[in-house]
């Protein structure tokens, strides 16, 4: 069977992971084409800004839960056996306040806040915390072993693994998805299939223009202080679209203090007032950050804003013919990009093989 030429559009965690899994199979010559590459920091490019961690918000019986479930194994393997990937294990505690029911954050975290979520049988050391151990205002809590990812290390690591498998990288900006099928674009000529991993930009890419994809603005503060564990709570008293979470990235990547979930907000610059609220909430929830002192004792590395590519109806993993060319879509994971990355990528790879199977029989 002759090798098939595939173009993957997008070099975020979705595009890189899909290309990596596809490159492990025989018969594909893969080109990753993207406007933004690891090392870039741009508001259109969500992956570098992520925390990132494994804190599933999906609910039982959904495709999203399956994708999250199928991602735990690969991430745990990286944390245990490949320190150069920038992934490490971290204990995680999730706090629930009854007063947050119905809030934006509680809805976003719906699967995570369950006392017996589906992932309780997937992650190590899942347990409920005793009521008498909880801070005032917290009604229940769970704990488990998770992972936290240093995206500044992990994204280049994915690139290195792709390169080792023969994947080619090329800077490109496409106005229409079929521009990627130009015979002169792929180094081996005619393009047999396009994988669309354009994230938030799927809302603007002609030929796709998915109006159900919207940004959910996340603002964070990155500090040098150590938290000791990963923490999150079901909501805040500061606003329906504000959140509180803390995680320490692997390999000296700093501690992430978050955050917000502002749907429809494209603002790329940090709001200083929101930053103060984020820091105050984090220090209150995790006093060990400053030894019980105020936010003036936080050692700030930088403030950052990222736009989660949220798709109404969830991540799109589908195949279709556009202008006579097969296209496999993998975009719209919102805040679950990393924790569903391997599950989504494998589902997309399965569709690539399904779409190209008739060609293999010719």
TrEMBL record:
<feature type="binding site">
    <location>
        <position position="308"/>
    </location>
    <ligand>
        <name>D-dopa</name>
    </ligand>
</feature>
<keyword id="KW-0274">FAD</keyword>
<protein>
    <recommendedName>
        <fullName>D-amino-acid oxidase</fullName>
        <ecNumber>1.4.3.3</ecNumber>
    </recommendedName>
</protein>
<keyword id="KW-0472">Membrane</keyword>
<keyword id="KW-0576">Peroxisome</keyword>
<dbReference type="InterPro" id="IPR023209">
    <property type="entry name" value="DAO"/>
</dbReference>
<keyword id="KW-0812">Transmembrane</keyword>
<keyword id="KW-0285">Flavoprotein</keyword>
<dbReference type="GO" id="GO:0019478">
    <property type="term" value="P:D-amino acid catabolic process"/>
</dbReference>
<feature type="transmembrane region" description="Helical">
    <location>
        <begin position="6"/>
        <end position="23"/>
    </location>
</feature>
<dbReference type="GO" id="GO:0003884">
    <property type="term" value="F:D-amino-acid oxidase activity"/>
</dbReference>
<feature type="binding site">
    <location>
        <position position="198"/>
    </location>
    <ligand>
        <name>FAD</name>
    </ligand>
</feature>
<feature type="binding site">
    <location>
        <position position="335"/>
    </location>
    <ligand>
        <name>D-dopa</name>
    </ligand>
</feature>
<keyword id="KW-0560">Oxidoreductase</keyword>
<dbReference type="Pfam" id="PF01266">
    <property type="entry name" value="DAO"/>
</dbReference>
<comment type="similarity">
    <text>Belongs to the DAMOX/DASOX family.</text>
</comment>
<keyword id="KW-1133">Transmembrane helix</keyword>
<dbReference type="InterPro" id="IPR006076">
    <property type="entry name" value="FAD-dep_OxRdtase"/>
</dbReference>
<dbReference type="GO" id="GO:0005782">
    <property type="term" value="C:peroxisomal matrix"/>
</dbReference>
<dbReference type="InterPro" id="IPR006181">
    <property type="entry name" value="D-amino_acid_oxidase_CS"/>
</dbReference>
<feature type="domain" description="FAD dependent oxidoreductase">
    <location>
        <begin position="6"/>
        <end position="351"/>
    </location>
</feature>
<dbReference type="GO" id="GO:0071949">
    <property type="term" value="F:FAD binding"/>
</dbReference>
């Amino acid at each position: 069977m002759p090798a098939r030429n595939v173009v993957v559009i997008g070099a975020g965690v979705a595009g890189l992971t899909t290309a990596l899994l596809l490159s492990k199979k025989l018969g594909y010559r893969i080109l990753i084409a993207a406007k933004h590459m690891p090392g870039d920091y741009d508001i259109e490019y969500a992956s570098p800004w992520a925390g990132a961690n494994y804190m599933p918000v999906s609910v039982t019986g959904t495709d999203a839960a399956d994708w999250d479930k199928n991602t735990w194994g690969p991430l745990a393997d990286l944390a245990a056996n490949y320190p150069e990937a920038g992934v490490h294990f971290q204990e995680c505690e999730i706090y629930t306040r009854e007063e947050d029911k119905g809030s934006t954050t509680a809805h976003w975290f719906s699967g995570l806040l369950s006392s017996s979520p589906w992932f309780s049988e997937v992650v190590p050391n899942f347990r409920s915390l005793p009521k008498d151990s909880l801070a005032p205002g917290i009604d229940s809590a769970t704990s488990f072993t998770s992972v936290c990812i240093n995206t500044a290390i992990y994204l280049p690591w994915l690139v290195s693994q792709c390169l080792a498998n023969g994947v080619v990288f090329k800077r490109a900006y496409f106005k229409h998805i079929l521009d990627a099928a130009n015979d002169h674009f792929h180094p081996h000529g005619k393009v047999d299939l396009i994988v669309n991993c354009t994230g938030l930009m799927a809302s603007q890419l002609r030929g796709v223009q998915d109006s159900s994809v919207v940004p959910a603005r996340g603002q964070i503060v990155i500090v040098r202080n150590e938290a000791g564990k990963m923490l999150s709570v079901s909501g805040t008293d500061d606003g329906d679209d504000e959140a509180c979470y803390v995680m320490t990235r692997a390999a000296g990547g700093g501690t992430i203090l978050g955050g917000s979930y502002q749907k429809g907000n494209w603002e790329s610059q940090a709001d200083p007032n929101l930053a103060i609220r984020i820091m105050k909430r984090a220090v209150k929830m995790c006093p060990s950050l400053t030894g019980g002192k105020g936010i003036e004792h936080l050692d700030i590395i930088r403030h950052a804003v990222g736009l989660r590519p949220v798709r109404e109806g969830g991540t799109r993993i589908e195949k279709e013919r556009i202008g006579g060319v097969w296209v496999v879509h993998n975009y719209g994971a919102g805040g679950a990009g990393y924790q569903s990355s391997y599950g989504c990528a494998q589902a997309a790879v399965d569709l690539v093989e399904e779409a190209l199977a008739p060609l293999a029989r010719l």
